[in-house]
């Protein structure tokens, strides 16, 4: 199963209609790939919230076909906890977010995740505990649709909790939140980030 966000809409690509029951999803299934292209046109308008599920027994071929519609890029990031079990969020362009960024040439996902967390937050001693999930989201850049695949890791901060947000990347704040405090800002997050946070 793949779940792809575009603004506040998402598309699930699955080989099993049963996923609707398993996930308690109230979605209209679609079976024609052309309907995916229509979904892209409508979902690009941020005022629309259109959640769909595309069912095809050959999920691998469906995913390859879907990827051909975009320029593909890869990124990595993390959910970072400190010794007090608080979680690090950044505030960028009006949304609460998790630190993440694109790969550099020949960089592994793990190395990219650690580097991006360090650069965006100023933390120097972060370590990966385990792999969490992979998320997908679409956005438009210079009149081209991009599909970003982001590898997420659970991380621990083993140094100082002092934070220095990377203003060059439009990060206004970096803040440690308790799990309860996150609930007060979760509605001001992108859908991909909400899904990753839900794994805590």
Which helices and strands occur, and which strands form pairs?
Blueprint: E1 2-6, E2 9-14, H1 19-22, E3 28-30, H2 33-43, E4 52-55, H3 59-67, E5 71-81, E6 87-92, E7 95-97, E8 100-102, H4 109-121, E9 126-141, E10 144-157, E11 171-177, H5 179-182, H6 191-197
Give short descriptive properties of this protein:
eight-stranded mixed β-sheet, 200 residues, 24% helix, three-stranded antiparallel β-sheet
Number of domains: 2
Low-confidence stretches: none
Strand content: 35-45%
Separation of the first and last Cα atoms = 21 Å
What is the H level of CATH, i.e. the homologous superfamily of the largest domain?
Answer: Nucleoside Triphosphate Pyrophosphohydrolase
CATH top-level class of the largest domain = Alpha Beta
CATH topology of the largest domain: Nucleoside Triphosphate Pyrophosphohydrolase
Q: What would you say about this model in short?
A:
24% of the residues lie in helices and 39% in strands. It is α/β, with parallel strands linked by helices and 200 residues long. It is globular, with a radius of gyration of 18 Å.
Q: Can you put this structure into words, describing what you see?
A:
- This protein has two domains: 2-67, no CATH class; 73-197, Nucleoside Triphosphate Pyrophosphohydrolase.
- The protein contains six helices and eleven strands.
- It has helices spanning 19-22, 33-43, 59-67, 109-121, 179-182, 191-197; strands at 2-6, 9-14, 28-30, 52-55, 71-81, 87-92, 95-97, 100-102, 126-141, 144-157, 171-177.
- The chain has 200 residues and is α/β, with parallel strands linked by helices.
- The model has no long low-confidence stretch (mean pLDDT 93).
- The longest helix is centred in the middle third of the chain and has 13 residues, at 109-121.
- The chain starts with a strand and ends with a helix.
